[in-house]
Amino acid sequence: MSIEAEVVESDVPARLDALPWARFHTLVIAALGVTWVLDGLEVTLAGAVSGALKESPALHLTDTQVGMTASAYLAGAVLGALMFGWLADLFGRKRLFFVTLGVYIAGTAMSAGSPDFLLFALSRFVTGAGIGGEYAAINSAIQELIPARYRGRTDLAVNGSFWVGAALGAIGSSVLLEPGRLPPDMGWRAAFGIGAALGIVILFLRRLLPESPRWLLLHGRHEEAERVASRVEREVLDHSAPLVAHPRVRLRPRGRAASFVDLARCLFSLYPRRAVLGLALMTAQAFCYNAIFFTYALVLGRFYDVAPEDVGLYLLPFAVSNFLGPLLLGPWFDTWGRRAMISMTYVLSGLLLALTALLFVEGLLGAATQTLAWTFVFFFASAAASSAYLTVSESFPVEVRALAIAFFYAVGTGIGGIGAPWLFGALIGTGEPAAIASGYALGAVMMIGAGIVALRLGVDAERKPLEAVARPLSSAD
């Protein structure tokens, strides 16, 4: 009998969803959620040290080259997400944990040692490839291991931890770039070395995590899935309590990995409305964030005369607000619901960004008040951006989950993100406030438009098992 002819019945997914929060789930978040911390660290360092990169005796980058290195990072993230997302569905989540993190460590270490612009841009590309791959493998694993009733708030908090990395990058860059602390061309190199050191520590922590039981079931390894679920239950449950019957799923294990053909079937045949929704959300948040954040230091330096070593001090309150947004608003995504909260956060952040653009072009903002304005905008925009990743990771079948995350990240970032830092770098280079404000206005329109799309096409996935939100392609029913 071929593996496709077999039918496996299992209550493992329902048992995982029924678990209370426990130390195991905290370990999952600590070992896997660090992906966002690393990305926040990298993006913040790239922005905070942009002034130092321009003054570096070795690199001596122009404003346009700073924007190009940011675009190289995002281009690497796009290609890395697609390649490693496919591999995560083929070989499993756990194997890719180590590969993608290893690529990231190599890339950020290369960034620290780069002698010229070309090698620095290549290093940023490699670093981005590792981070993009992490998004696909890690987000799918978190979705599959966290109980359904906690999935929304957990996913938002994990995505919001990007800003923990941003805060670390802001503090580290301020210390390392302080004049006289290190030789002129060493501060920014030491800053990038922080990421490599943190990545090496996380490699050891990930050894404690199991493979996703849902992925194991789909690939005919139901005995392994049962062992993983039982191990988690032994750590979590009170076994003196009476046994509870859980719903069972019936699956035909796959003899092959999901392909781009399977993904296309999901996007264009089974769930076209969800595909439009995911594309709108990911594109808008990618443009808004990458345009503003990658050029944050350039705006502070060009228009407000903020010294490179002081940029981190302005990034810190911005990072705190971005972390608190998903953390404080996250529970509402599980209670009030996905559709209402996603549309509200997108539209509100777009309106606030439009107001900021108006104040900026009128010359009514200083360095402190500009930072305060961005802080208000991104309290809501951070929750909105995090909800985009939540939406694309829970709205499609488990067989193509990592590939779907990779696809939407790649397309959304490709459309809304790769060109944004270059565009804003060029706009800043003009020295005209009206040019920068026009870019902010474009970001505001995209966020408001995505919020309207979410209101019309949103998926009411709150507190539902993943198999109920999107039926597995391998379902035998």
Protein model, in words:
- The protein has 477 residues and is an all-alpha fold.
- Helix content is 75%, strand content 1%.
- It is built from 22 helices and 2 strands.
- The chain has helices at 12-18, 23-32, 34-48, 50-55, 63-91, 93-112, 117-145, 151-160, 162-176, 187-205, 213-218, 222-236, 260-270, 272-293, 296-304, 311-335, 338-361, 367-394, 401-416, 419-430, 433-457, 466-469; strands spanning 8-10, 249-251.
- The chain has a two-stranded antiparallel sheet with strand order 1-2.
- α16 (311-335) packs antiparallel against α17 (338-361) and α16 runs parallel beside α18 (367-394).
- It starts with 7 loop residues before the first strand and ends in an 8-residue tail after the last helix.
Largest sheet: 2 strands, antiparallel
- Quote the average pLDDT: 84
Question: How many β-strand stretches?
Answer: 2
**Principal-axes shape call:** globular
How are the strands ordered across the major sheet?
A: 1-2
Distinct helical segment count: 22
Please mark out the parts with pLDDT under 50 across 5 or more consecutive residues, or reply none.
none
Helical proportion, percent range: over 70%
The helix-strand sequence is EHHHHHHHHHHHHEHHHHHHHHHH
How would you classify the helix and strand content by structural class?
mainly alpha
Radius of gyration (CA) equals: 22 Å
